[in-house]
C-alpha cells in the first residue's frame, strides 16, 4: 500500500513538474512577444520623430525657395509702384534669416547623429528636433505674413 502511495506521489510530482515546465515555456514566449512588441513600438516612435523632421525639412526647403521669390518680388514691386517703399524688402530678408537659422539647427542635428556612437545624448537630440520643428512652424507663419504683405502691396 505504501509503495502504491509513493508511486502515485511520483506520478503526481512528475505531472506537476511537466505543468510547471510548460508554464515556464509559455511565460518565456509571452515575455519574448512583449519584448518584440516593445522593440517594434520604440522603432515606430523613432521613425515617427525622424519622419516628422524629414517632412519639416522638405517644407523648409520649399519655403526657403519661395522666400527667395518673394525677395525678388519685393524688389520688383518697389520699382514698379511708387507707393511701395524699398525698405519693405526687410520683411523677406528677416524671414531669410529665420531660414538660415533653421538650416543651422538642421546641421546641428546632423552633427549629433554623426557622433551617435561616441557621446550621444538622446534627450538633447529629441529637444533639438522639437526646437527645429517649432522653428519651421514659425517659419511657415512668418512666410505667410510676408506673403500677405507682398500680396497687399501688389494688389493695392
UniProtKB/TrEMBL annotation:
Q: Does the keyword Transmembrane helix apply?
A: yes
Q: Which residues form a coiled coil?
A: 2-30
What are the record keywords, sorted?
Answer: Coiled coil, Membrane, Transmembrane, Transmembrane helix
Membrane-crossing residue ranges in chain numbering = 63-80, 86-106, 134-155
| The name this protein goes by in its record | Uncharacterized protein
